[in-house]
Design goal:
This protein has 211 residues and is of the alpha+beta class. It has one domain: Beta-Lactamase, CATH 3.30.450. Helix content is 30%, strand content 16%. α4 (141-149) packs across α6. The longest helix is centred in the N-terminal third of the chain and has 16 residues, at 58-73. Keywords: Guanine-nucleotide releasing factor. GO terms for molecular function: guanyl-nucleotide exchange factor activity; phosphatidylinositol phosphate binding. Residues 1-211 form the UDENN domain. One of its GO terms (biological process) is endocytic recycling.
């Protein structure tokens, strides 16, 4: 999709941030169904890894993007093709990959590494979040970012503005802080949900939505 590049690189100026940025944009279809774009922008802003999914699994996909970036650096690009064929696990479930290296004999590669107590790498895994559970701190990355970045007074004003269904425009210096706070604000409305336009990352070609 041609519009994806505008969301993966949502700026028209020189990128000054030196740290790796994790952020999420949202694509909404005509029926109101949201598809999440989980992104990892490297520190040189030359490459952005993006995964599109209907599942709002922020912690899972961010960790997977870090693992994918590490595998790409090491030249192990077969992992993504193998993961694409895996069915979605039911919560609490996990995914394990079996991959074959054509240049060597059968090798078991598994998704992200967990260090054991003796310093050796053990089999990595992903755990599907429980959709019945409520977000908590510090396990929920978005909610943690929100309470750190926004004080109580402003948080109450934002919450009241959402209840009154006002148009809200939020600025931030970092993409990860911006999108984390916006998704956390949406989660605070539970069991209600935001029914209007929701654009966590606003690229230059969509600035008309501000007016």
């Amino acid at each position: 999709c041609q519009t994806l590049s505008g969301f993966c690189f949502p700026y028209d100026m020189v990128w000054e941030e030196k740290a790796v940025q994790h952020f999420t944009f949202v694509l909404t279809d005509i029926e109101g169904c949201q598809r999440f774009g989980f992104c990892r922008l490297n520190n040189s802003a030359q490459m952005c890894l993006c995964i599109l999914s209907y599942l709002p699994w922020f912690e899972v996909f961010y960790k997977f993007l870090n693992t994918l970036a590490d595998y790409i650096t090491k030249g192990q690009v077969m992992m993504l093709a193998a993961l694409y064929k895996q069915p979605i696990p039911l919560a609490p479930g996990s995914i394990t990959l079996q991959m074959v290296n054509l240049k060597k004999k059968c090798i078991w590669w598994i998704l992200y590494f967990i260090l054991s107590s003796n310093g050796l790498f053990r089999a990595p895994y992903f755990i599907a979040p429980d959709p019945r559970g409520l977000p908590s701190i510090p396990e929920n990355r978005n909610l943690t970012e929100l309470v750190v970045a926004v004080d109580v007074t402003n948080l109450l004003q934002l919450y009241a503005s959402m209840l009154f269904e006002r148009r809200i425009l939020i600025f931030a210096r970092k993409l990860n802080t911006l999108t984390s706070c916006l998704h956390a604000l949406g989660a605070l409305l539970y069991p209600m949900h935001w029914q209007h336009i929701f654009i966590p990352v606003l690229p230059p070609h969509l600035l008309d939505y501000c007016w």
